[in-house]
Amino acid sequence: MSEFIGHNCGIAITYTLHDAHNFLYSLQHRGRDAAGIAAVGDTIDILKWQGSVKRFDLAELHKHFPDGRYQYFIAHNRYATRGRKDRVLQDAHPHHIGGKVTDYGTYIIVRGAKKAIVHNGQIETESLNIDKSRLMSGSDSEALLHYYDKHGTHGEERVLQDIPGSYSAIIADTSREGAIVIRDRYGIRPAALGWKDNKFVAASEDIAIRKNGGSFREDIKPGSVYYLYPDGKYDFEQIIKSPYLALCKFEQLYLADPESVIDGIPVIVVQQQMGTMLARESPKDADIVSFAPRRSEAAARAYANELGLPFVHLLTKESALRSFQGPYQKEREEAIQRNLHLLNPPYFERRGDIRREFKGAITDIVDDSIIRGTVGSTIAALVKPLDIIPRLRSYTPYIGRIRKDGVKTGCYDGVDMPPEETADHKFVARGRNSRGISKAIGMDTRALSVRGMKSAFRKAGMDPNNLCTFCIGGRHPYRKFD
Length: 482
Prior knowledge:
The chain is α+β, with helices and mostly antiparallel strands. It folds into two domains: 10-244, Aminohydrolase, N-terminal nucleophile (Ntn) domain (Glutamine Phosphoribosylpyrophosphate, subunit 1, domain 1), CATH 3.60.20; 265-472, Rossmann fold. 24% of the residues lie in helices and 27% in strands. The protein has 13 helices and 25 strands. The strands form six sheets. The protein has a nine-stranded antiparallel sheet. A hairpin with a 2-residue loop joins β11 and β12. The model is unreliable at 1-7, 322-328 and 350-356 (pLDDT under 50).
């Protein structure tokens, strides 16, 4: 069995500690299990901690990273998958080679490292020809760094040429001038180049750059290396001349900030097109439209507009906490129960003079996806006292079914949807037809078709042939199945 720990995380490179911290906070939606910053000068000092970005404020960070010693900073927040809750801190980024490690229980300090990496994505390490006895964690990112190190000054090129998988990564190496930014040949995980304070910076999403006073310049090109230098300049080299694109559709549909622009396409435009297409595929007998907060609102409003129906708020979330990112099913269920609530009293937004009776209304509730069914079943229980007829509508096609050739689908590339089911991870759509899914969730349930999803992406301006569709039954970009 392959050894890998997956991530859907946020990464950044900046030239001030203030920016590193703020960029990470703007990427908090990508991970809440751990965060870390590496400060790069003649050597590399690292602080990584368990919990959210704001657990360490700037005043405390400056005590660990005194001014004047460093040329740039690389940063990471982590969403741990594969259930390694007991090793979150040890597997947290940045990973490093060299240096003295001091473990304080809930945070770790490294002084004097020679190389470091932050990585968003997932690779398999089983076939990597490296000395695994040198690895200090179970993280694929540390293995990626050692593979880079093994090949010296051509390490970044060999990574892109030799290693399939998903990775947007930033490597700091004290033997090299500046930082190395790479993106896998398929472009599975996003990365953006920006401009701030007369220097080029990079981050997982452009929103981190724009929200903090910078400007977006371009998407990091798949199969390429960007060299960002302390004087603010950069060089670029396309290593994979004809990359095969397999962009992660889940970035646009769920993972990215709604205000982000991923690979040239605004996230919110994609979600609006999904809502419109979902409405066209749905029965036209609904009375009102609502949504599962918070990621689904733009799609739900487009759904309501397409059908000419009132849009209402029925549910609320106390915080932006994303239960999807919990590594255990029990934790995900408890997170939803703590965070998702019925509005009290329920109310309707007015649209002109339209008012509808609440009792007996056929209510289409739009959600971003149906994976384990945890959110849907919780919503079914919450709205039961309202005496309405609820129906769940997902703008993502059903995930995790078995293909006609017997291949189990899911995600191998950094989203917590492994094709192999476990006690803590089961696909509600696997082995069930629409009626069975509806019964398992507790209300009538439908999902956008694959054809409808592709049409929506095309209308938003993205070629659907450039998407990875393995989790919804398509082919995998680099794996071969017998």
